[in-house]
Amino acid sequence: MVTTVTPYTDSRNRAYIGEGYDGVVRISVNGYYGTGVLLSDGRTVLTVAHLFANSTSSSVNVNFETTAGSQTMTSSHITLLSTYDAQSNNDLALVTLSSSAPVTANRYSLYRSSDEIGQTMTMVGYGQLGTGDTGTLTTYSGSPLRLKASNQFDADAATLKSQFGSTMSWTPTTGTQLVADFDNGNSAQDALGQLINRPGLGLGQNEGMISPGDSGGPAFINGQIAGIASYTTSLSQGNIHPDINGITNSSFGEIGAWQRISNYQQWIDQSQRAQYQNAPTKPSEVQTNIVESNIDTTYTYFLLQFTGVRSDPNQLLSVAYATRDDTAKAGQDYIAASGTLVLYPNENQAVIPVEIIADHLAEPNEIFYLDMFNPVGGSFGEGIIKLTAMRTIISDHSGLLA
Length: 402
Ligand SMILES: [Ca+2]
Ligand SMILES: [Ca+2]
Ligand SMILES: [Ca+2]
Fold this sequence. Notes:
The chain is mostly beta strands. The protein has 2 domains: 2-267, Thrombin, subunit H; 278-394, CalX-beta domain (Immunoglobulin-like). It is 7% helix and 35% strand. It contains 3 helices and 24 strands. The longest helix is centred in the middle third of the chain and has 14 residues, at 261-274. It is globular, with a radius of gyration of 22 Å. The structure holds calcium ion (CA) (3 copies). One calcium ion (CA) is lined by residues 181, 183, 190, 192-193, 200, 202.
Protein backbone atom coordinates (compact mmCIF):
# COMPACT_ATOMS: atom_id res chain seq x y z
CA MET A 1 0.00 0.00 0.00
CA VAL A 2 1.25 3.47 -0.84
CA THR A 3 0.60 5.98 1.88
CA THR A 4 0.83 9.71 2.30
CA VAL A 5 3.48 9.47 4.98
CA THR A 6 6.64 7.37 5.13
CA PRO A 7 5.52 3.84 6.01
CA TYR A 8 8.53 2.89 8.10
CA THR A 9 8.40 5.87 10.36
CA ASP A 10 4.69 6.40 10.90
CA SER A 11 2.81 3.76 12.86
CA ARG A 12 -0.56 5.10 11.76
CA ASN A 13 -0.20 3.15 8.51
CA ARG A 14 0.64 -0.23 10.02
CA ALA A 15 -2.13 -2.80 10.43
CA TYR A 16 -0.43 -4.37 13.45
CA ILE A 17 -1.29 -7.77 14.85
CA GLY A 18 -4.14 -7.63 17.34
CA GLU A 19 -5.67 -4.41 16.03
CA GLY A 20 -8.64 -5.98 14.27
CA TYR A 21 -7.04 -6.69 10.88
CA ASP A 22 -5.79 -10.23 11.53
CA GLY A 23 -8.25 -11.64 9.00
CA VAL A 24 -6.48 -9.78 6.18
CA VAL A 25 -4.15 -12.35 4.59
CA ARG A 26 -1.47 -12.74 1.98
CA ILE A 27 -2.23 -15.19 -0.86
CA SER A 28 0.68 -16.67 -2.84
CA VAL A 29 0.04 -17.94 -6.37
CA ASN A 30 2.83 -19.12 -8.68
CA GLY A 31 5.46 -16.78 -7.23
CA TYR A 32 3.16 -13.76 -7.11
CA TYR A 33 1.09 -12.64 -4.21
CA GLY A 34 -2.00 -10.65 -3.46
CA THR A 35 -4.18 -9.92 -0.46
CA GLY A 36 -7.45 -11.46 0.71
CA VAL A 37 -9.95 -11.17 3.55
CA LEU A 38 -11.52 -13.86 5.74
CA LEU A 39 -15.33 -14.09 5.69
CA SER A 40 -17.64 -14.82 8.60
CA ASP A 41 -17.55 -18.62 8.26
CA GLY A 42 -13.82 -18.72 9.12
CA ARG A 43 -13.22 -20.88 6.08
CA THR A 44 -13.63 -18.66 3.00
CA VAL A 45 -11.23 -15.93 1.82
CA LEU A 46 -12.51 -13.28 -0.59
CA THR A 47 -10.01 -11.91 -3.13
CA VAL A 48 -9.71 -10.99 -6.83
CA ALA A 49 -9.98 -13.34 -9.81
CA HIS A 50 -7.01 -11.77 -11.63
CA LEU A 51 -4.60 -13.30 -9.11
CA PHE A 52 -5.37 -16.65 -10.74
CA ALA A 53 -5.35 -15.45 -14.36
CA ASN A 54 -2.03 -17.12 -15.22
CA SER A 55 -2.26 -19.98 -12.78
CA THR A 56 -3.03 -23.58 -13.53
CA SER A 57 -2.58 -24.56 -9.90
CA SER A 58 -5.66 -25.74 -8.06
CA SER A 59 -4.32 -24.84 -4.61
CA VAL A 60 -2.74 -21.71 -3.18
CA ASN A 61 -1.03 -20.74 0.07
CA VAL A 62 -2.76 -18.34 2.44
CA ASN A 63 -0.67 -16.70 5.17
CA PHE A 64 -2.21 -15.44 8.40
CA GLU A 65 -0.43 -13.10 10.82
CA THR A 66 -2.27 -13.12 14.14
CA THR A 67 -1.53 -13.11 17.87
CA ALA A 68 -0.84 -16.84 17.44
CA GLY A 69 2.05 -16.05 15.06
CA SER A 70 2.47 -16.58 11.34
CA GLN A 71 0.58 -19.53 9.89
CA THR A 72 0.37 -20.67 6.27
CA MET A 73 -2.63 -22.69 5.15
CA THR A 74 -3.56 -24.31 1.86
CA SER A 75 -6.80 -24.10 -0.06
CA SER A 76 -9.16 -26.91 -0.95
CA HIS A 77 -11.21 -25.06 -3.56
CA ILE A 78 -11.05 -21.85 -5.63
CA THR A 79 -14.21 -20.33 -7.09
CA LEU A 80 -13.75 -17.65 -9.76
CA LEU A 81 -16.62 -15.40 -10.69
CA SER A 82 -17.46 -16.88 -14.09
CA THR A 83 -18.15 -13.51 -15.72
CA TYR A 84 -14.68 -12.14 -14.86
CA ASP A 85 -13.12 -10.56 -17.96
CA ALA A 86 -9.77 -9.09 -18.96
CA GLN A 87 -11.25 -5.58 -18.58
CA SER A 88 -11.38 -6.11 -14.80
CA ASN A 89 -15.13 -6.56 -14.73
CA ASN A 90 -16.39 -9.03 -12.10
CA ASP A 91 -12.86 -9.45 -10.71
CA LEU A 92 -13.63 -11.61 -7.67
CA ALA A 93 -12.70 -15.06 -6.38
CA LEU A 94 -13.33 -17.12 -3.27
CA VAL A 95 -10.64 -19.34 -1.76
CA THR A 96 -11.94 -22.11 0.49
CA LEU A 97 -9.33 -23.10 3.09
CA SER A 98 -8.58 -26.77 3.61
CA SER A 99 -9.21 -26.33 7.34
CA SER A 100 -10.53 -23.52 9.50
CA ALA A 101 -8.57 -20.30 9.89
CA PRO A 102 -6.79 -19.66 13.19
CA VAL A 103 -9.34 -18.75 15.86
CA THR A 104 -7.23 -15.64 16.46
CA ALA A 105 -7.96 -14.33 12.93
CA ASN A 106 -10.74 -11.78 12.59
CA ARG A 107 -13.80 -12.76 10.56
CA TYR A 108 -15.66 -10.04 8.63
CA SER A 109 -19.14 -9.61 7.22
CA LEU A 110 -20.19 -7.92 3.99
CA TYR A 111 -21.30 -4.31 3.64
CA ARG A 112 -24.66 -4.84 1.95
CA SER A 113 -26.03 -1.31 1.42
CA SER A 114 -25.44 0.50 -1.88
CA ASP A 115 -24.72 3.88 -0.25
CA GLU A 116 -20.91 3.59 -0.38
CA ILE A 117 -20.24 6.68 -2.53
CA GLY A 118 -19.23 9.60 -0.34
CA GLN A 119 -18.25 7.37 2.56
CA THR A 120 -14.81 7.03 4.11
CA MET A 121 -13.25 3.58 3.96
CA THR A 122 -10.18 1.89 5.41
CA MET A 123 -8.13 -0.24 3.03
CA VAL A 124 -5.75 -2.94 4.26
CA GLY A 125 -3.20 -4.94 2.30
CA TYR A 126 0.28 -6.33 1.77
CA GLY A 127 1.06 -4.31 -1.38
CA GLN A 128 4.28 -2.53 -2.28
CA LEU A 129 5.30 0.29 0.02
CA GLY A 130 5.83 3.88 -0.98
CA THR A 131 4.67 7.43 -0.50
CA GLY A 132 2.27 9.54 -2.52
CA ASP A 133 4.95 11.95 -3.70
CA THR A 134 6.99 9.34 -5.56
CA GLY A 135 4.76 6.23 -5.72
CA THR A 136 5.85 2.66 -5.13
CA LEU A 137 9.36 2.06 -3.79
CA THR A 138 11.45 -0.20 -5.97
CA THR A 139 14.24 -0.60 -3.41
CA TYR A 140 12.37 -2.32 -0.55
CA SER A 141 13.49 -5.92 -0.10
CA GLY A 142 12.07 -6.82 3.30
CA SER A 143 9.10 -9.10 3.82
CA PRO A 144 5.75 -7.57 2.84
CA LEU A 145 4.17 -5.41 5.53
CA ARG A 146 0.47 -5.23 6.24
CA LEU A 147 -0.52 -1.58 5.99
CA LYS A 148 -3.73 0.36 6.29
CA ALA A 149 -4.83 3.74 4.98
CA SER A 150 -8.06 5.57 4.34
CA ASN A 151 -9.78 7.20 1.41
CA GLN A 152 -13.27 8.09 0.27
CA PHE A 153 -15.29 6.33 -2.40
CA ASP A 154 -15.91 9.14 -4.90
CA ALA A 155 -17.85 7.59 -7.78
CA ASP A 156 -18.96 4.57 -9.77
CA ALA A 157 -16.17 3.59 -12.21
CA ALA A 158 -18.65 3.70 -15.10
CA THR A 159 -18.81 7.48 -14.61
CA LEU A 160 -15.21 7.64 -15.87
CA LYS A 161 -16.17 5.90 -19.10
CA SER A 162 -19.02 8.29 -19.76
CA GLN A 163 -16.51 11.15 -19.45
CA PHE A 164 -13.61 9.60 -21.38
CA GLY A 165 -15.42 7.54 -24.01
CA SER A 166 -13.18 5.62 -26.40
CA THR A 167 -9.99 7.23 -25.03
CA MET A 168 -10.43 4.95 -22.02
CA SER A 169 -9.48 1.41 -23.02
CA TRP A 170 -11.82 -0.50 -20.69
CA THR A 171 -15.54 -0.37 -19.92
CA PRO A 172 -16.58 -0.84 -16.29
CA THR A 173 -20.10 -2.19 -15.95
CA THR A 174 -22.35 0.34 -14.21
CA GLY A 175 -22.85 -0.34 -10.52
CA THR A 176 -20.04 -2.87 -10.12
CA GLN A 177 -16.87 -0.89 -9.26
CA LEU A 178 -16.15 1.98 -6.90
CA VAL A 179 -13.30 4.46 -7.45
CA ALA A 180 -11.27 6.68 -5.12
CA ASP A 181 -8.46 9.11 -5.93
CA PHE A 182 -5.18 9.65 -4.08
CA ASP A 183 -5.28 13.22 -2.80
CA ASN A 184 -2.52 15.34 -1.33
CA GLY A 185 -4.76 18.29 -0.50
CA ASN A 186 -4.00 20.22 -3.71
CA SER A 187 -6.72 20.64 -6.31
CA ALA A 188 -4.14 19.95 -9.07
CA GLN A 189 -3.88 16.32 -7.84
CA ASP A 190 -7.61 15.96 -7.10
CA ALA A 191 -8.08 13.52 -9.98
CA LEU A 192 -11.80 12.89 -9.67
CA GLY A 193 -12.48 16.54 -8.87
CA GLN A 194 -10.60 17.62 -11.99
CA LEU A 195 -11.77 14.86 -14.33
CA ILE A 196 -15.40 14.16 -13.40
CA ASN A 197 -16.31 17.04 -11.10
CA ARG A 198 -16.32 15.08 -7.83
CA PRO A 199 -14.17 17.49 -5.83
CA GLY A 200 -12.61 16.42 -2.54
CA LEU A 201 -9.10 17.13 -1.30
CA GLY A 202 -8.68 13.98 0.75
CA LEU A 203 -8.08 12.88 4.32
CA GLY A 204 -4.68 14.47 4.92
CA GLN A 205 -2.10 12.11 6.41
CA ASN A 206 -4.62 9.24 6.59
CA GLU A 207 -5.05 9.14 2.81
CA GLY A 208 -3.58 6.20 0.88
CA MET A 209 -3.77 4.17 -2.34
CA ILE A 210 -3.54 0.50 -3.32
CA SER A 211 -0.43 -0.78 -5.11
CA PRO A 212 0.73 -4.12 -6.61
CA GLY A 213 0.22 -6.81 -3.94
CA ASP A 214 -2.86 -5.10 -2.49
CA SER A 215 -5.05 -6.74 -5.15
CA GLY A 216 -7.81 -8.62 -3.36
CA GLY A 217 -7.50 -6.54 -0.21
CA PRO A 218 -10.56 -5.21 1.56
CA ALA A 219 -11.87 -1.68 1.84
CA PHE A 220 -13.90 -1.57 5.06
CA ILE A 221 -16.82 0.69 5.87
CA ASN A 222 -17.68 0.42 9.57
CA GLY A 223 -15.63 -2.79 9.79
CA GLN A 224 -17.52 -4.54 6.99
CA ILE A 225 -16.14 -5.41 3.55
CA ALA A 226 -17.44 -2.83 1.07
CA GLY A 227 -14.83 -3.16 -1.67
CA ILE A 228 -12.10 -5.49 -2.93
CA ALA A 229 -9.02 -3.79 -4.44
CA SER A 230 -8.81 -4.50 -8.17
CA TYR A 231 -6.64 -2.00 -10.12
CA THR A 232 -5.19 1.51 -10.32
CA THR A 233 -5.04 3.92 -13.22
CA SER A 234 -3.41 7.23 -14.13
CA LEU A 235 -5.86 9.24 -16.23
CA SER A 236 -5.49 12.62 -17.89
CA GLN A 237 -7.52 14.62 -20.36
CA GLY A 238 -6.56 17.71 -22.37
CA ASN A 239 -4.49 19.95 -20.12
CA ILE A 240 -5.53 18.10 -16.97
CA HIS A 241 -2.79 15.78 -15.64
CA PRO A 242 -3.55 15.04 -12.00
CA ASP A 243 -0.89 12.30 -11.61
CA ILE A 244 2.01 13.98 -9.80
CA ASN A 245 4.68 12.06 -11.75
CA GLY A 246 2.95 10.89 -14.92
CA ILE A 247 3.56 7.14 -14.54
CA THR A 248 1.18 4.54 -13.10
CA ASN A 249 2.82 3.81 -9.74
CA SER A 250 0.14 4.57 -7.12
CA SER A 251 1.29 8.16 -6.58
CA PHE A 252 -0.78 11.21 -5.72
CA GLY A 253 -3.23 12.03 -8.50
CA GLU A 254 -4.01 8.41 -9.42
CA ILE A 255 -7.28 6.52 -9.15
CA GLY A 256 -7.95 3.15 -7.54
CA ALA A 257 -10.87 0.84 -8.29
CA TRP A 258 -12.56 -1.67 -5.99
CA GLN A 259 -15.08 -4.35 -6.87
CA ARG A 260 -18.33 -3.29 -5.24
CA ILE A 261 -19.35 -5.95 -2.72
CA SER A 262 -22.96 -4.83 -2.27
CA ASN A 263 -23.46 -5.66 -5.95
CA TYR A 264 -21.94 -9.13 -5.60
CA GLN A 265 -23.41 -10.29 -2.29
CA GLN A 266 -25.64 -12.93 -3.87
CA TRP A 267 -22.73 -14.58 -5.68
CA ILE A 268 -20.56 -14.42 -2.56
CA ASP A 269 -23.23 -15.77 -0.21
CA GLN A 270 -24.36 -18.57 -2.50
CA SER A 271 -20.85 -19.64 -3.54
CA GLN A 272 -19.81 -19.73 0.11
CA ARG A 273 -22.85 -21.80 1.12
CA ALA A 274 -22.15 -24.25 -1.71
CA GLN A 275 -18.87 -25.20 -0.02
CA TYR A 276 -20.27 -25.89 3.45
CA GLN A 277 -19.52 -29.46 4.48
CA ASN A 278 -22.32 -31.61 5.92
CA ALA A 279 -24.74 -28.71 6.25
CA PRO A 280 -28.35 -29.69 6.95
CA THR A 281 -30.83 -29.42 4.10
CA LYS A 282 -33.97 -29.97 6.17
CA PRO A 283 -34.93 -29.50 9.84
CA SER A 284 -34.65 -33.20 10.66
CA GLU A 285 -30.95 -33.05 9.76
CA VAL A 286 -30.13 -30.23 12.17
CA GLN A 287 -27.92 -31.39 15.01
CA THR A 288 -28.40 -29.44 18.21
CA ASN A 289 -25.70 -31.31 20.14
CA ILE A 290 -22.18 -30.86 18.83
CA VAL A 291 -19.24 -32.93 19.93
CA GLU A 292 -16.22 -30.66 20.06
CA SER A 293 -12.97 -31.75 18.49
CA ASN A 294 -9.65 -31.57 20.26
CA ILE A 295 -7.72 -30.68 17.13
CA ASP A 296 -9.79 -28.59 14.75
CA THR A 297 -12.71 -26.21 14.72
CA THR A 298 -16.01 -27.96 14.07
CA TYR A 299 -19.20 -26.37 12.76
CA THR A 300 -22.74 -26.22 13.94
CA TYR A 301 -25.34 -25.01 11.44
CA PHE A 302 -28.49 -23.07 12.16
CA LEU A 303 -31.15 -23.56 9.49
CA LEU A 304 -33.56 -20.73 8.62
CA GLN A 305 -36.62 -21.72 6.62
CA PHE A 306 -39.18 -19.36 5.13
CA THR A 307 -42.57 -21.04 4.91
CA GLY A 308 -44.63 -18.03 3.81
CA VAL A 309 -45.36 -16.85 0.28
CA ARG A 310 -43.51 -13.97 -1.33
CA SER A 311 -45.84 -11.31 -2.72
CA ASP A 312 -43.16 -10.70 -5.39
CA PRO A 313 -41.08 -13.73 -6.44
CA ASN A 314 -38.00 -11.52 -6.76
CA GLN A 315 -38.35 -10.20 -3.23
CA LEU A 316 -35.23 -10.62 -1.08
CA LEU A 317 -35.85 -11.78 2.46
CA SER A 318 -33.35 -11.05 5.18
CA VAL A 319 -32.91 -11.47 8.87
CA ALA A 320 -30.31 -10.23 11.33
CA TYR A 321 -28.68 -12.77 13.61
CA ALA A 322 -26.26 -12.90 16.52
CA THR A 323 -24.91 -15.59 18.82
CA ARG A 324 -25.42 -15.19 22.58
CA ASP A 325 -23.51 -16.74 25.48
CA ASP A 326 -24.99 -18.97 28.13
CA THR A 327 -22.59 -21.37 29.80
CA ALA A 328 -20.61 -21.53 26.55
CA LYS A 329 -18.53 -18.38 26.09
CA ALA A 330 -17.70 -16.68 22.79
CA GLY A 331 -13.97 -16.66 22.14
CA GLN A 332 -13.35 -19.70 24.38
CA ASP A 333 -15.95 -22.26 23.38
CA TYR A 334 -17.25 -20.95 20.07
CA ILE A 335 -16.60 -18.00 17.74
CA ALA A 336 -19.15 -15.23 18.00
CA ALA A 337 -21.11 -14.72 14.78
CA SER A 338 -23.44 -11.92 13.79
CA GLY A 339 -24.65 -10.43 10.54
CA THR A 340 -27.43 -10.59 8.00
CA LEU A 341 -28.72 -13.74 6.33
CA VAL A 342 -30.32 -13.11 2.94
CA LEU A 343 -32.67 -15.45 1.12
CA TYR A 344 -32.49 -14.67 -2.60
CA PRO A 345 -35.23 -15.28 -5.21
CA ASN A 346 -36.16 -18.96 -5.36
CA GLU A 347 -34.48 -19.62 -2.01
CA ASN A 348 -36.63 -20.54 0.96
CA GLN A 349 -33.93 -21.68 3.33
CA ALA A 350 -30.26 -21.15 4.18
CA VAL A 351 -27.87 -22.04 6.97
CA ILE A 352 -25.66 -20.01 9.27
CA PRO A 353 -22.44 -21.76 10.31
CA VAL A 354 -20.96 -21.18 13.76
CA GLU A 355 -17.49 -22.44 14.67
CA ILE A 356 -16.98 -24.54 17.79
CA ILE A 357 -13.47 -24.09 19.17
CA ALA A 358 -11.47 -27.22 19.82
CA ASP A 359 -10.00 -27.67 23.28
CA HIS A 360 -8.37 -30.28 25.47
CA LEU A 361 -10.14 -29.46 28.70
CA ALA A 362 -12.51 -31.77 30.48
CA GLU A 363 -15.57 -29.57 30.92
CA PRO A 364 -19.26 -30.03 31.50
CA ASN A 365 -21.51 -29.64 28.48
CA GLU A 366 -22.12 -25.99 27.63
CA ILE A 367 -24.83 -24.16 25.78
CA PHE A 368 -25.17 -21.02 23.68
CA TYR A 369 -27.87 -19.45 21.54
CA LEU A 370 -28.41 -17.89 18.14
CA ASP A 371 -31.05 -15.16 18.00
CA MET A 372 -32.73 -14.03 14.77
CA PHE A 373 -34.50 -10.70 14.64
CA ASN A 374 -35.51 -7.82 12.38
CA PRO A 375 -36.93 -9.83 9.45
CA VAL A 376 -37.22 -7.80 6.22
CA GLY A 377 -39.51 -8.88 3.37
CA GLY A 378 -41.33 -11.48 5.48
CA SER A 379 -42.22 -12.16 9.10
CA PHE A 380 -41.71 -14.78 11.80
CA GLY A 381 -45.47 -15.02 12.32
CA GLU A 382 -47.91 -12.82 14.15
CA GLY A 383 -46.54 -11.31 17.34
CA ILE A 384 -43.15 -13.00 17.07
CA ILE A 385 -40.22 -10.59 17.00
CA LYS A 386 -37.34 -12.93 17.69
CA LEU A 387 -36.46 -16.55 17.05
CA THR A 388 -33.93 -18.34 19.22
CA ALA A 389 -32.20 -21.67 18.75
CA MET A 390 -29.96 -23.40 21.27
CA ARG A 391 -26.86 -25.52 20.81
CA THR A 392 -25.16 -27.77 23.31
CA ILE A 393 -21.44 -28.35 23.01
CA ILE A 394 -20.64 -31.85 24.21
CA SER A 395 -17.16 -32.05 25.68
CA ASP A 396 -15.42 -35.09 24.31
CA HIS A 397 -13.34 -35.33 27.49
CA SER A 398 -16.11 -35.38 30.02
CA GLY A 399 -17.11 -39.01 29.72
CA LEU A 400 -20.75 -37.91 29.60
CA LEU A 401 -21.29 -38.89 26.00
CA ALA A 402 -22.96 -42.26 25.71
CA1 LIG B 1 -9.29 10.73 -2.28
CA1 LIG C 1 -10.17 13.79 -4.53
CA1 LIG D 1 2.00 8.18 -10.82
